[in-house]
Amino acid sequence: MSTDQWVALVAAIVGGALRVGTPYLFVSLGECLTEKSGRINLGLEGVLVLSAMAAFGGAYLTGSPWLGVLAGALAGTLLATLHGLLCSLPRVNDVATGIALMLLGTGLALYLGKPLIQPQAPQIVALPLGSWSDSPVIQSALRVNALMPLGVALAVALWWAFARTRWGLLVRLAGDSADATRALGYSVSGIRIAATAAGGFLAGLGGASLTLFYPGSWNEGISSGQGLIAVALVIFARWSPLRCVGAALLFGGAGAIGPSLQSVGIGWGYHLFNTVPYVLTLVILVLTCKPGSVAAGSPGELSSTH
Amino acid sequence: MRSTANDMLLPVAAIVAALLLFGVFVWFADVSPLDVWVTLFKGAFGDWFSWQNTLQRAAPLMLTALCVALPARAGLIIIGGEGALVLGGLACAVLPSVLPLPANLLGTVLVCAAGAAAGAVWVMLAGWLRQSRGINETISSLLLAYIAIGLFKHVVEGPLRDPASLGKPSTQALAEGLRIGSMGSSDVHWGLLLGLLACIALGLWLRWTATGFAMRVVGGNLRTAQLVGLPATRLILGACAIGGAGAGLAGAVEVAAVHNSANASLIAGYGYAGILVSFIARHHPIAIIPVAVLFGGFGAAGSLLQRRLGLPDASVMVLQGIAFVLILASEALRDTEWRRLLKRLRGPAEVSPAQLAMGDKIA
After folding, report:
1. A97 in contact with B, Cβ within 8 Å
2. What is the model's pTM?
3. What is the pLDDT of residues B206-232, one digit of tens each?
């Protein structure tokens, strides 16, 4: 490969990390918030697909990408609220419910999104972070989703809220000890439903950035497990919203390797390189999980880490 | 006895409720719910042609549902059956080009065994990651499924592609003698019998043998199992291996009986539908049989819904999703004392004040 090709490849991967990493960031923040309250929501995969469809449909029908983003976030909130309510029933397991919502969310999205496969919807504006450079390759690689800075700001806000605010402490309390929460007179289910719903809102923003920025269209294969990778990503980030930012970029970069190689003309192993995020997730799980002990930083009531 | 009645009635009620809700749902698309229900029934069980289609879909569903049911009885929620299925299909399609096989029944048995072995290894990997590293098996099995699908596509479109398959990348077609034929004059292949036998055998095994019982103890209460000295890890890995073998066999049967070579048609979602089937059957191998037939039927009716009523092809997925949510929600009703509830609903007139007071205290 020539130097130009190398530059193009690196730029494509970095740019891809920013583009592909944005949905990861929002979904992992949503999952982080949900898990902090003591529940796991595997249904965020379904939330992601449904909100991607709703955002695209909203933008297409109203002509405004921002109303589309709102529609996506609201669709995500609705489905996640269903998860929160179902899990509050006696003997209903949160992992199984998540699997059910994965199926329901995907089914609803494909059903309602059938007429949206052809049309084009107005897209979210891009921030030209690469305008300092003369190279068109770098300029195009660093055109960043306008939702990306919002995601970083939300990560900081969540981190601050968990540490400093009454609401953040309540969520952590419900996640660490249901008994203590009850003793203080708060409703554990109420807090968890609220946290799950808010997590769905955040994940919905991730869905919106899938269809309204990159890849920028609605199709049936819009998400292939990003919602689930986010669950592992939260474990990797040790339930810290700030570390979620770095983890999301890392996974975004891993996901961008296949398409980047293809863009510089290397087609071999396209499908293999596309499995890199999943392999990376497994490797990270192997490295971070220790047998017989609870993962560092995990909320005490979380069923998945026990 | 009452708990058995509850075990049967709750899922039936949940499926009926799901059909009702689905009717309301399509009503929003200006389609008559009655038409949908009639079409679902006709497309699934209306005539011999639909029955054949239904049973052909039920066969892989039974086997992939076992991939969820067996680990679930040992306490694991495995949802990566799709990965075991595609690798099983791949192993079945590739074995003849690695090993010269006799083109007869023995060869067919060998390609199926290769598929089962590939699936077993893949799901055991998720079980092993959990037992040795404490990794959540639900997440790891699904990640492994995505990796398996990537490997499958790479191999089928790359190194092992049959150059003759132009439009649709496929591996070399299986020799005529290695394929699985149909039963009698029907279109239904012998894979259905394999699925039935596997479900019945595993159901009996869980119920009547010591190892089956030990596995249920491990799934019911791990601490108890360890206290009485059961080899928990070995039993859990065994459950994963048997379940994975089921899903791998499903892939092998799909290749040997339906597609004749490994290609993208194999990735049809049977692995994911099997999760739903197993949950509705409450992870009971024998109960999987009727549930797989029912959902095979809904799958078969899907194309009819599309053609007759103009509904999107994802309608069946919506129905499945609603059914899944309701089946889980119905768990909350399990301990309801229906008789007492009915008595109270009928009004306090028939009940003496003393009984009423007692009832209130208990409630």
Report:
1. yes
2. 0.90
3. 999 999 999 999 999 999 999 999 999
